[in-house]
Write a structure and sequence with these properties.
The chain is α/β, with parallel strands linked by helices. The chain contains eleven helices and eight strands. The chain is globular.
């Protein structure tokens, strides 16, 4: 089926999603060696969401993400070498080696950082949007989180305040159906999450979170609404987490899902979906280019020194 966006945009979506996938696969491959001194929450299978959302943003727009962080950091233009440095907890990392995988940041590219606390990025994004509106800046703030974060009280508070003030903020819910190892049907009433947001007066939609084009289009519409003063939007992206909650392996042996359960979702793989829309030449070119970049970033991270001080200029004591 022909994409509703131009080919250049589709190529860009594919390039970002593929880079995220290759980076995550490399991390998963090397993580068991024990060189990476941090927990990791890989986004394998969910690449279409950061790729689609961030393709619609500018460097001035700000993203506030969560612990499944790598894809969002890379999609917003974060430096791969500094991300690898942080995952190896080296001084060359984007957080100086002190934050690890769950605390990535690149303010120059409008990536305000990630947090290990469930739902903590939501009020931060709302606060940024409040600032943008108060200062009459033509910018939007984006908060990214999983379906489990919608069960936190701060989620309701963030929606309410953003609606009350008509703030230029976009809430992106990556609904992979799981909060750690518990299915959404076992945690929430049988009522769509986007409908709950709608109840606060937030313009809300649900999209195929494995289709980067759909995510991109929904984000574009939300940005237009935000920048013309129509307030917040909520986008629920239905997707699937291919690996375990935290770590490089699958979790089919834990009893809550089986490999058979994943078959239908694997047929909707976001990378394969985009590959049908781009040339084979581009695929080969990007894979070769990214493999060189990833290998270099890994090598530099291994060789880099660890931090020599405990939180210099980051922890102030009276």
């Amino acid at each position: 089926m022909k994409s509703a966006v131009d080919q250049k945009t589709v190529d860009r979506l594919y390039a970002t999603a593929l880079k995220i996938r290759m980076v995550e696969e490399t991390i998963a491959l090397h993580y068991p060696k024990g060189e990476m001194k941090t927990p990791i929450h890989l986004c394998t299978g969910q690449e279409a969401n950061p790729a689609g959302v961030c393709a619609a943003l500018t460097d001035k727009d700000m993203v506030f993400a969560y612990y499944r962080s790598h894809g969002w950091y890379l999609a917003k233009g974060g430096h791969l070498g500094r991300m690898m440095g942080e995952i190896f907890c080296k001084s060359t990392g984007c957080s100086g080696g002190y934050g690890g995988s769950m605390h990535l940041i690149d303010l120059e590219r409008g990536f305000a950082g990630t947090t290990a606390l469930v739902a903590a990025a939501q009020p931060h994004a709302v606060g940024a949007a409040f600032t943008f509106k108060s200062r009459k800046q033509n910018r939007v703030a984006v908060s990214c989180f999983g379906d489990g974060a919608t069960e936190e009280g701060i989620f309701q508070e963030s929606l309410m305040f953003a609606t009350l003030r008509k703030l230029p903020v976009i809430f992106i819910c990556e609904n992979n159906g799981l909060a750690t190892n518990t299915w959404v049907k076992d945690r929430q009433p049988a009522f769509p999450i986007y409908k709950r947001a709608e109840g606060f007066g937030v313009h809300s939609v649900v999209v195929d979170g494995n289709d980067a084009v759909q995510v991109y289009q929904a984000t574009q519409e939300a940005i237009v609404r935000a920048k013309q003063g129509d307030g917040p939007s909520f986008i629920e992206c239905m997707t699937y987490r291919m690996l375990e909650h935290c770590g490089p392996n699958n979790d089919f042996g834990l009893g809550f899902r089986s490999e058979q359960d994943a078959v239908s979702w694997k047929q909707k793989d976001p990378i394969q979906h985009l590959e049908k829309q781009v040339s084979v030449d581009l695929q080969e070119q990007l894979r070769n280019t990214y493999q060189i970049e990833i290998d270099l970033a890994m090598d530099e991270a291994r060789k880099a020194p660890f931090p020599t001080q405990l939180l210099p200029e980051r922890l102030q004591c009276p």
